[in-house]
Write a structure and sequence with these properties.
- The chain is of the alpha/beta class and 605 residues long.
- It has two domains: 318 residues, ABC transporter transmembrane region fold (Up-down Bundle); 248 residues, Rossmann fold (3-Layer(aba) Sandwich).
- It is built from 18 helices and ten strands.
Length: 605
């Protein structure tokens, strides 16, 4: 099989948009940010004051004056505290700003997770888990890095450059300030253009990194499938192919950075050389003292050393911007299903459910349901049957409001589900899905997930009603037994019984069973059917079924085909019609008789 990597489209969000997206999170800490900036300025003022004190010391030692022997001692006593003051204010800045950095990371991480839960089912069916998790990880980490670089590198360097240039302009020849500003301007311009050119490598590096992570996660989640088909080498080759593309982009990113660093070093070297030549000429001419030469030299070293790192920092800032842009693009995705501004809490009442002339399509060119109309009276049980693709499971998704109908209405107790809050709607409905997915935690945790404030006694009672308590007790760790990733340590039937116990514990008014016994053997199925029958007695129940034997007690059965209801009635009524349902019943009865004959050895195999 030919494997081809398609690079993800780069974000259209620019850096200023990314920064603006980050500002609301910083606003909550505006007091701390202001105090941190104050400490930063004080620290840099102390740092710039050190060469000024050093100049006075050198000038005095060059021309000692017996009448002012105490002056060097005073200056030396000032020199030491200035260094200490700069260090203290830097540490205070770090202490004050720590809450800002880590608090912003926490709020961003929480915001992204909340937004991912708010996005519709369509997004989660199409998403690549590995890529999303990597984008989230890089985005929040980059937000912290951005704040760190800005407060600890960029702003301090700019403050220092401004202070030094001002001192040079006021006290010395204008050419010192001109050379300083021109050097800094050329340095920043070169850094800007080369870094912008380099970013295409970083974008490609990020895209391939996310793709490789997605492939690795998918391969591990589908471990059994990989083994069943002997495709370990295929997975390794696919993963390695993507990593090769990541390696190529990473190497280009690093080598281009080295080229940038050499160019920056050359600019700084030329600027410092010109400044020192000019200062030496002024000393020889007698317009500057030896202390002035030392001062200028100290200023240049003090300014250009951090400025040299500013080039690397700018590159990292651009990388952080790119990483954050992907995260904020994710936050910009609009939820497909949202509450109305005036959405009310659902008054579930006795739980009457009505589908009124509902039509629906996942995509405009692929309609799924056509004018579906039925009602489930309060406390009654309605079953929906039909071949795969008939639109049965779509009914449960519309009732739970994973999607909104294209036309018609879905109502609970005469309230359109689009007019009530999703939180209250979801609280009223319990679902046992066909494909049960469990958290990689204990059985106790997975059952308790149905109602997180439930007592242990209530959880055990729910397990007993789902006929799984005895199985759990037989395990060495009992309810503390881990179920594994996606519940892989349990059989299909065991997983489904955990899901049933979870739904029982939730105590919803409306129940949906989406082929909830499809993974059970006949003995387990009968036990579960009794439990479901007891459970559904005081609930409005929608059962989506493949096995007709599981729904013969339903007050009404709908038969669906290609998105339409083609028959309706109770079990006996539908059999008497000798229609589609009767044919399905006859076929399944023959299949069951054949299975029984094979098991008892009454038929040749």
């Amino acid at each position: 099989m030919h494997i081809r990597y398609t690079e993800a489209a780069t974000t259209k969000r620019n850096d200023w948009q990314t920064i603006r997206s980050l500002l609301p999170y910083l606003w909550d800490y505006r007091g701390r940010v202001g105090l941190a900036l104050l400490f930063l300025i004080l620290a840099k003022a102390a740092t710039v004051g050190i060469p000024l004190a050093l100049k006075e010391i050198v000038d005095f030692l060059d021309n000692p004056d017996d009448r002012a022997l105490a002056l060097p001692l005073v200056l030396l006593l000032i020199y030491g505290p200035l260094r200490l003051t700069g260090s203290v204010f830097n540490e205070l800045r770090d202490v004050v700003f720590a809450k800002v950095r880590h608090g912003t990371m926490r709020k961003l991480s929480l915001k992204v997770l909340q937004h991912l839960h708010d996005l519709g089912l369509r997004f989660h069916l199409e998403r690549k888990t590995g890529a999303v998790s990597r984008d989230l990880e890089r985005g929040t980490r980059s937000a912290s890095s951005l704040l760190n670089y800005m407060v600890f590198n960029v702003i301090p360097t700019l403050v220092e450059v401004t202070l030094i240039a001002t001192i040079l302009l006021v006290n010395y020849s204008v050419w010192f300030a001109v050379i300083t500003f021109v050097t800094v301007a050329i340095y920043i311009t070169v850094t800007f253009f080369i870094t912008e050119w380099r970013m295409k490598f970083r974008h490609r590096m990020n895209a391939t990194d996310s793709e490789a992570n997605t492939q690795a996660v998918d391969s591990l989640i589908n471990y059994e499938t990989v083994k069943y088909f002997g495709n370990e080498k295929f997975e390794h080759q696919r993963y390695n192919h993507t990593l090769e593309q990541w390696e190529d982009a990473a190497v280009k990113t690093q080598t281009s950075m080295s080229g940038l660093n050499m160019g920056q070093g050359a600019i700084i070297a030329i600027g410092v050389t010109l400044i020192m030549i000019l200062a030496t000429q002024h000393v020889i001419a007698g317009t500057m003292t030896l202390g002035d030469l030392v001062l200028v030299n100290a200023f240049m070293l003090q300014m250009f050393i951090p400025l040299n790192f500013l080039g690397i920092v700018y590159s990292q800032l651009k990388h952080s911007m790119a990483d954050m842009a992907q995260m904020f693009d994710l936050l910009d995705r609009t939820a497909e299903v949202t509450d109305k501004p005036d959405a009310k809490v659902l008054d579930v009442g006795k739980g009457t459910v009505r589908f009124e002339n509902v039509s629906f399509s996942y995509n405009e060119d692929r309609p799924i349901l056509f004018d579906v109309d039925f009602e489930i009276p309060a406390g009654k049980k309605l079953a929906v049957v039909g071949h795969s693709g008939a639109g049965k499971s779509t009914l449960s998704r519309l009732l739970f409001r994973f999607y909104d109908v294209s036309s018609g209405r879905v109502m609970i107790n005469r309230q359109d589900v689009r007019d009530v809050s999703q939180e209250s709607l979801h609280a009223a409905i319990g679902i046992v899905p066909q494909d049960t997915v469990l958290f990689n935690d204990s059985i106790y945790y997975n059952i308790a997930y149905g109602r997180t404030d439930a007592s242990r006694e209530e959880i055990i009672e729910a397990a007993k009603l789902a006929h799984i308590h005895e199985f759990i007790e037989s395990l060495p760790q009992g309810y503390d037994s881990l179920v594994g990733e996606r519940g892989l340590k349990l059989s299909g039937g065991e997983k489904q019984r955990v899901a049933i116990a979870r739904a029982i514990l939730k105590r919803p008014k409306i129940l949906i069973f989406d082929e909830a016994t499809s993974s059970l053997d006949s003995k387990s199925e009968q036990a579960i059917l009794e439990a479901l029958k007891e459970m559904a007695t005081h609930h409005t129940t929608l059962v989506i079924a493949h096995r007709l034997s599981t729904i013969i007690d339903a007050e009404q059965i709908l038969v669906m085909d290609k998105g339409r209801i083609i028959e309706r009635g109770d079990h006996q009524t539908l059999l008497n019609k000798q229609g589609y349902y009767a044919q399905m019943w006859q076929l399944q009865q023959e299949e069951r008789e054949q299975e029984t004959a094979i098991k008892t050895g009454d038929v040749l195999v």
